[in-house]
Amino acid sequence: MHGRRQPTLPIKIDSTSNGEYRPIPLDRPLAAANAAAAERLTENARRLGLDRRRFLSGLCGAATTLLTFNAAFAAKGVRGGSFALPPEAAFEDAAAQAALGSREFIFDVQTHMVDPNGPWRQRPGAAGGWSSFLSSLPQGRCGKSDPVDCFAADPFIKEVFLDSDTDMAVLSFVPALPEHNPLTLREAARTREMVAQLGGGRRLLLHAMVVPNVADPAAQLAAMERAAAEWKISAWKVYTQWGPAREGWWLDDPKVGIPFIEKARALGIKTIAIHKGLSFGGFPLKYAGCADVGRVAKLFPDVTFLIYHAGYEARRPEGPYDPAAAAEVGIDTLIASLKANGVPPNANVYAELGSTWRILMRDPTAAAHALGKLLSHVGHDRVLWGTDSIWYGSPQDQIQAFRVFQIAPEFQAKYGYPALDAALKAKVFGLNAASVYGVDPASIVRKAGADDLDRARAAYRERPAPSFATYGPRTAAEFDAFVKGRGVGPP
Questions:
Q1: What helix, strand, coil percent values describe the chain, rounded to 5?
Q2: In a 10 Å sphere around its CB, with 0-12 CB exposed, 13-18 middle and 19+ buried, how is residue 356 labelled?
Q3: Domains of the chain as residue ranges with CATH
Q4: Helices and strands, counts by H and E, the chain
Q5: E strand or H helix that includes residue 111
Q6: pLDDT in tens, 332-369
Q7: Which of 134, 339, 374, 429 counts the most CB atoms within 10 A of its CB?
């Protein structure tokens, strides 16, 4: 089932990977749920006298899909969490609006795109590898003559700012040296300006990629100075498990990590986003764990550490926090590291949900444990919304699924997990990130029609045309082709 073309659904629970982990095939019940959702979407559209595509684009379409998944999870005996919405939301606009149409401030701190004209395409084999891979995927065809253009600025803005409720985003980088990276700071800054010219103002912020474990670390530190001076970046992005020599590094390594953090402090940009979890094949596993996070958080209390993916491992089952299971990788290694170093909840460490929530959507019990642990041990004010879009297409389905997700009362009582009420979800969706980046949400979220971006979004939604596409590899074969095509490092 997972190797075939999957049905077009407004909520996408499938095997798509962001390229940092091998695709996880759907089990039979979830594959059957996808097929059942497709049938029910057609049935409910007919019931309401609507074109199927129009029904898919509305809230009732999303509700129909989530309710179908709920039934599949219940049949499997899943009891840790669920998508809480009433049955009538599948065909009553008012019920769907009440469940799925809330208007939080949404700040996505992990998004990605590609510069189709960047120097990476001149690297031998890069253009052929990426282009042939992307053009071979059905979900990668977007009507462009060059398939890499599907990942460019215009599709990025449409998927993130028009096809979703995202108000603000951070554009991040992937692990590669500048000459190999599929996104340049110049193109990222141009995209930021495109969003600003829509009237969005400060709605797109930028990371700068740093690779401290190179042969000439001083050159990377000098590059940090240039990035800070030229591009008005808001934070740094690093991958401790990656390096040009296929070797990782520790944040508190005195020759690598400490000089990097000290440089960030000296430049006055003291927010550092660190990929932890989603371990890369062929690289030492230990650096994907979070043992060093608590150590540097204690050493540098004035630095803000954003743990991307929250240390989550895609194929590692999530249960209640278990110190004995925190030896090497996984969310528990993050919690154990904070505890071992006396870093309390709501301190200077944040846990980010990019790809993590997207994968957890297929298993509400694992989702309940992961979210419950992070909120309890990292803190209600320290969990950040991220989606890893554009690899998964528009983040709207992730937003809608989180809006209605609830941790079961049984799990709240047994494990001390919090109830995911509207106030807590608002923190995760954007208020926590606003604090990190010094943003006033009230200055970003305005009434409809207040600026060109809001007007463009309102006009677009009169006749929406979402792609419901995902862009990453879905099968092991596609993943292998992706790894071969991308050359050095993960995507």
A1: 50, 10, 45
A2: buried
A3: 107-117+149-444 (3.20.20.140)
A4: 20, 10
A5: strand 107-111
A6: 999 999 999 999 999 999 999 999 999 999 999 999 99
A7: 374
